[in-house]
Amino acid sequence: MMLQHPGPSLADISCSAMVPCLSPPGALTLDDFTHFTPLVKEELRLAIQSRRLSGGLSADVSSDGTSSGSERGSERRSDGSGVRREVTPQDHERRKRRRERNKVAAAKCRNKKKEKTETLQQESEKLEGVNSDLKAQIEELKQQKQQLVYMLNLHRPTCIVRAQSGRTPEDERDLFLQHVRESAAQLHAVTSSSTCTSSALSTLSPLDGGLLTLDHIFCAGL
Fold it and tell me: Using one digit for the tens of pLDDT, what is the confidence trace for 119-149?
């Protein structure tokens, strides 16, 4: 009776078909495992290239299976299906208009901030001017206060004497009126005397020998 050697299983055949360079599982060595990772990457790269070519995209793919930065900038996903498409002129126009709107909005924002800063600066300068004026008024009031205190100190002895004499404001007023009447009477007397002297001199007769005697003096009021 002859012994039959069992052939390779279906799993072994599929594995050998996927990675032709590998031997059947029973004959794998350490060198086969070291070359396994680069082969898998190569298979992935080829699969991605085939998919991109079927989608009408460029087949240029980097070593890690991702597209370059320039391609990523010119492509975008459509309706969430994961398929990228090229940017159309309409998309470029929309992006351009959006950038222009952003520039205009940024310029308006900067101008508004500048105007606000200028307004605050003007208000600050105005308040500083008002503060300076108020300080000058305070200094002037201080000087006036010192003058009033000085004048009060000058009149203080007189006020103390009047207070000690027991005079009331009414008494001070009566004394003032009496003083005014006395001054008026004295002024009237002096005026009358001057008028009398003038009348006497105007009625003098010619002097004998140029001498004036008591007989020549005549007062009309007497």
Answer: 999 999 999 999 999 999 999 999 999 999 8
